[in-house]
């Protein structure tokens, strides 16, 4: 016991610590730096759909640099961006996540109809993390053109009519 108390006394010497009294303080000026990072042109690619023969989304994007189609057969081709595919590439339709059975398995096709797609935007930059962890490889946004990007200049009128047993018929008339 005596050796242990001696070892403790030697290992924990108590010395008073004094703060240095320095009257000369150097005040640094405040520097504000503002910058914007633009997405590089090669990281954001817009593909106009002129070929309705594309069977899969991977086929529609096969001419884009850094994008391949997964090889699960002729009818199931998902985009692979810079060797990342599956749940690491976010598939969007009109800005909304497009989850289907393809999120479970790669051999199930993405619900993509080339007849209704006007353009497809491929984003390969690090900006895609705003979509969450499912977009670390990139994102593919399919623009179907169904949702208008700008409001129409025409006035919209809605006509409501009540018919038989409470069925409501709504008609939209454009002026």
Automatic annotation (TrEMBL):
Pfam families registered for this protein in UniProt: Plug
Gene3D superfamilies: TonB-dependent receptor, plug domain
SUPFAM superfamilies per the UniProt record, alphabetical: Porins
Taxonomic superkingdom: Bacteria
GO CC terms, sorted: cell outer membrane
PANTHER family recorded: TONB-DEPENDENT OUTER MEMBRANE RECEPTOR, TONB-DEPENDENT RECEPTOR NMB0964-RELATED
Name of the protein in its database record: Putative TonB-dependent receptor
Classification lineage: Bacteria, Pseudomonadati, Pseudomonadota, Gammaproteobacteria, Moraxellales
């Amino acid at each position: 016991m005596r050796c242990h108390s001696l070892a403790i006394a030697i290992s924990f010497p108590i010395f008073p610590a004094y703060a240095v009294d320095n009257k000369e303080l150097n005040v640094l000026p405040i520097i504000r730096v503002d910058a914007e990072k633009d997405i590089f042109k090669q990281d954001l690619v817009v593909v106009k759909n002129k070929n309705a023969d594309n069977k899969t989304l991977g086929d529609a994007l096969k001419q884009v640099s850094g994008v391949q189609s997964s090889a699960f057969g002729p009818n199931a081709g998902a985009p692979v961006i810079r060797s990342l595919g599956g749940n690491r590439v976010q598939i969007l339709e009109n800005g909304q996540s497009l989850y289907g059975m393809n999120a479970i398995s790669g051999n199930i096709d993405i619900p993509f109809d080339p007849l209704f797609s006007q353009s497809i935007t491929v984003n390969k930059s690090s900006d895609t993390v705003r979509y969450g962890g499912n977009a670390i490889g990139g994102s593919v946004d399919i623009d179907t053109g169904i949702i208008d990007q700008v409001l129409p200049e025409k006035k919209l009128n809605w006509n409501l009519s009540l018919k038989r047993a409470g069925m409501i018929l709504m008609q939209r008339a454009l002026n």
